[in-house]
Design brief:
By secondary structure, this protein is mainly α. The chain has 18 helices and no strands. The protein has a single domain, classed as Na+/H+ antiporter like fold, CATH 1.20.1530.20.
């Protein structure tokens, strides 16, 4: 009985195939009598489809290579006691023209060709937008309010001195390292901001690894870094608005920026504090709730981009007004962070690496300026933080530790530098010098802290 049933199914299947093949044969025969489309048009469509497939293959290969390199170099640098981000940045630079492009250009062309750079650039930009949203989610505004005057003084001292030294460095190198047509004021302000940045997420990771994040020293470092970075981002937003617009539009852009920031905190903040408890009534945060946040993230990023600053500011603001300790913030971080850190950020590092050209520093003078830049960046950040911390009652040891921690730049610095290069505020040579400065100052943090022998039982105020 079963055998007869199987035989019936088999012959039914053969019949269906025969009918389908016969039907297709008849349709194609009839189609031959129809008018032929413009051959140049069909050829163009075929060429476009072929190019699209080739581009997809190249981007997929490039992303795979970038992720593998980031994981390998990140793990290697973690073994050396360095933050993961340092290895990922170095991995991106190794894939760029300074190393792979110099010693194995054919391999680099095969793995990451010039045609993939625009695609990597878009992926990197999207990744940075989502990353800044996560940074905003990690920012605890309640801690900022509780820390009072001490954290504010330490944070702004760690901004003002590097900003003055950055402007002074701009005065020294403006004739040699600036881009033609860039006003000195914009050039100097950008360099000042570049030397003032602290990488809040990298700093948080270092403190967590060393079990200092729950100590008074760690709390003060995180709070000061958060205040400093918010201030630096506001200054950078102002600079971007000035750089992108004609003078007559600067007031409009600045006014819209301030209006948007005020609206986010005065209207968006209270709305968020009402929305979050409603979402948390459910057992788990639904996909619809997550989708709503992503739409809000994209619209906020779009708004700041349309205003004339940059999409990253809108993403950061939305994260900042989201309650830091809510289940929604935790769920958003968990769902976004892995994808951003594993896929998007390595693409950003590779994109930065492709733009970092060590061979652009082709003279002793260039390398001397690079050393001066590293020295001024360290002196400004360490000196400003150390003096204000000591003045605020911290011990010599903990004041030194705070200065070292504030000198951590890392990924946030690279975001600022890429923005400056995109806006043509800095030259390729100066961009490379600033990338080296960011790497050196971040690399130095862990070894210098180890020399101070800072322990989790610090008793500083």
């Amino acid at each position: 009985m079963q055998h007869r049933k199987n035989s019936h199914v088999f012959w039914s299947y053969i019949f269906l195939i025969a009918v389908a093949v016969g039907g297709l044969f008849w349709i194609f025969q009839k189609g031959k009598t129809l008018a032929v489309a413009d051959p140049s048009f069909t050829s163009m469509l075929g060429s476009a489809a072929h190019d699209q497939i080739n581009s997809l293959l190249q981007v997929l290969l490039a992303l795979a290579v970038v992720i593998i390199m980031a994981q390998v170099m990140g793990a290697l640098f973690q073994l050396l006691g360095q933050p993961l981000v340092i290895g990922e940045v170095v991995g991106g630079i190794l894939l760029g023209p300074s190393f792979l492009g110099t010693y194995a250009p054919k391999v680099q062309t095969m793995l990451i060709s010039e045609s993939t750079l625009p695609f990597l650039g878009i992926i990197a930009q999207i990744g940075v937008v989502f990353y800044m949203f996560v940074v905003g989610l990690e920012l605890d505004l309640k801690v900022l309010k509780k820390s009072g005057l001490t954290a504010l003084v330490i944070a702004h001292s760690g901004i003002l001195l590097p900003m003055v030294l950055g402007a002074y460095f701009a005065l020294l190198v403006f004739q040699d390292l600036s881009v033609p047509g860039v006003p000195f004021s914009q050039f100097a302000l950008f360099l000042g901001i570049s030397l003032s940045v602290t990488a809040f997420p990298v700093l948080a990771r270092i403190l967590s690894d060393k079990k200092l994040n729950k100590t008074p020293l760690g709390n003060m470092a995180l709070t000061s870094a958060a205040i400093g970075d918010v201030t630096a981002w506001c200054l950078l937003a102002l600079l971007v608005s000035v750089a992108q617009d004609a003078f007559g539009n600067v007031i409009r852009t600045t006014g819209l920026t301030l209006l948007y920031i005020g609206s986010m905190f005065l209207l968006g903040g209270p709305l968020m504090r009402r929305l979050i408890p409603w979402l948390e009534k459910f057992d788990r945060i639904t996909q619809g709730g997550i989708a709503a946040f992503f739409v809000a993230l994209l619209l906020s990023a779009l708004a700041t981009e349309v205003i004339g600053i940059h999409a990253i500011f809108g993403a950061f603001l939305l994260g900042a007004i989201t309650p830091h300790d809510s289940r929604v913030a935790t769920a958003l971080t968990e769902r976004v962070e892995d994808l951003v850190r594993i896929v998007f950020l390595p693409a950003f590092f590779a994109f930065t690496g492709m733009r970092t050209q060590f061979n652009a520093l082709n003279s002793t003078s260039d390398w001397n300026w690079c050393l001066v830049l590293i020295g001024l960046a360290t002196l400004g950040k360490f000196g400003g933080t150390f003096l204000s911390a000591k003045w605020s009652g911290f011990s010599w040891k903990d004041s030194s530790a705070l200065g070292i921690l504030m000198n951590t730049r890392g990924l946030v610095e690279l975001i600022v530098l890429n923005l400056g290069l995109d806006l043509k505020l800095i030259s390729q040579r100066l961009f490379t010098m600033l990338v080296i400065m960011a790497l050196v100052t971040t690399f130095a943090t862990s070894p210098l802290l180890a020399l101070l022998r800072i322990r989790p039982n610090s008793n500083s105020p």
